[in-house]
């Protein structure tokens, strides 16, 4: 474990205060079961500068309530039962091997949210940098225990959860290896229900846990606001085209938007600084020109700009 208790490892990268925001393009099931779509989404995330892409891994027979298996629905692949559809959008080991190789070739990490313990065992066949607990799984103690047992960084998403449920999940997972994400689990989420100040609330309640943001809103501004409020991790759903078939596509970010999002996150984190008030050398020229009364601390400020301690 790291010496700073609020830092978390994602392979060779570190997330937490003082480190670049860890940005994840959530592919989820927006690949629609098509490996070529997954590769294109990995390309888009790598080109945008994301640190990782993420998938969702389910064992359909475990995750689909039995009474829904045989319900028929229309899909782009014809009419099929719900359980067949769940299999149709799930990748198996061979596909994940290809995803693993492809991601490596693009120098981007991948991981997933396992929705059941078999999916944890499945993902453990790969050297993933982390696992994620989807908000819907926050109350699944069996899953949380299996994830804790992997010893990897675990991202805990907190949408649709009460403070009591969140505290319980942290107890089950332990706080040493987790990163917690604020989230509102509505697709798309409305600005009025994002409640971004919860990022600060969670930070105050869990001082040893880095806090991130998993967004389902449309648009990018509110995700950038989350970074300004201190989110150390950001995840947004990504899609090749918001009009594609699938429940998550409409609330996802397209490649161009993703590029803007990562660019603006990097600008915001650079602009947040260290919070120590100082006079920059670049301000000395304007100061000379514009300040009529030098003021009693002018010399000290100038010294500070030259890297010397402020004496006031
Ligand atoms: C649904 C997921 O996460 P979140 O709750 O953050 O949207 C997920 O990661 O599968």
Automatic annotation (TrEMBL):
Single GO biological process annotation from the record: carbohydrate biosynthetic process
GO terms of molecular function: N-acylneuraminate-9-phosphate synthase activity
Organism: Streptomyces liliifuscus
Residue ranges constituting the PseI/NeuA/B-like domain according to the UniProt record: 41-277
Pfam families linked: NeuB
Superkingdom of this protein's organism: Bacteria
InterPro entries from the UniProt entry: Aldolase_TIM, PseI-like, PseI/NeuA/B-like_N
Protein name stated in the entry: N-acetylneuraminate synthase family protein
């Amino acid at each position: 474990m790291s010496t700073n208790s609020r830092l978390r490892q994602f392979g060779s990268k570190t997330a937490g205060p003082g480190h670049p925001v860890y940005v994840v393009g959530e592919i989820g099931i927006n690949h629609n079961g098509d490996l070529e779509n997954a590769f294109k989404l990995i390309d888009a995330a790598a080109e945008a500068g994301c640190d990782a892409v993420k998938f969702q891994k389910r064992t359909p027979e475990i995750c689909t309530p039995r009474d829904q298996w045989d319900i028929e629905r229309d899909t782009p692949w014809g009419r099929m039962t719900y359980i067949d559809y769940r299999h149709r959008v799930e990748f198996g080991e061979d596909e994940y091997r290809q995803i693993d190789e492809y991601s490596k070739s693009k120098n981007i990490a991948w991981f997933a949210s396992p929705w059941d313990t078999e999916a944890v065992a499945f993902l453990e066949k790969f050297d993933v940098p982390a696992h994620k607990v989807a908000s819907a799984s926050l109350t699944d103690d069996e899953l949380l225990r299996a994830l804790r047992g992997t010893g990897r960084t675990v991202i805990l998403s907190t949408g649709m959860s009460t403070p009591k449920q969140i505290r319980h999940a942290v107890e089950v997972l332990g706080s040493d290896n987790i990163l917690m994400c604020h989230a509102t689990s509505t697709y798309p989420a409305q600005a009025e229900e994002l409640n971004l100040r919860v990022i600060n609330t969670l930070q105050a309640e869990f001082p040893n846990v880095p806090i991130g943001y998993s967004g389902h809103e449309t648009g990018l501004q509110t995700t950038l606001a989350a970074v300004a409020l201190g989110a150390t991790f950001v995840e947004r759903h990504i899609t090749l085209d918001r009009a594609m078939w699938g429940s998550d596509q409409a609330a996802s970010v397209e490649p161009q938007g993703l590029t803007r999002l990562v660019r603006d996150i990097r600008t915001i984190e650079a602009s947040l600084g260290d919070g120590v008030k100082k006079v920059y050398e670049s301000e000395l020229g304007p100061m000379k020109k514009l300040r009529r009364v030098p003021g009693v601390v002018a010399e000290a400020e100038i010294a500070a700009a030259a890297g010397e301690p402020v004496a006031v």
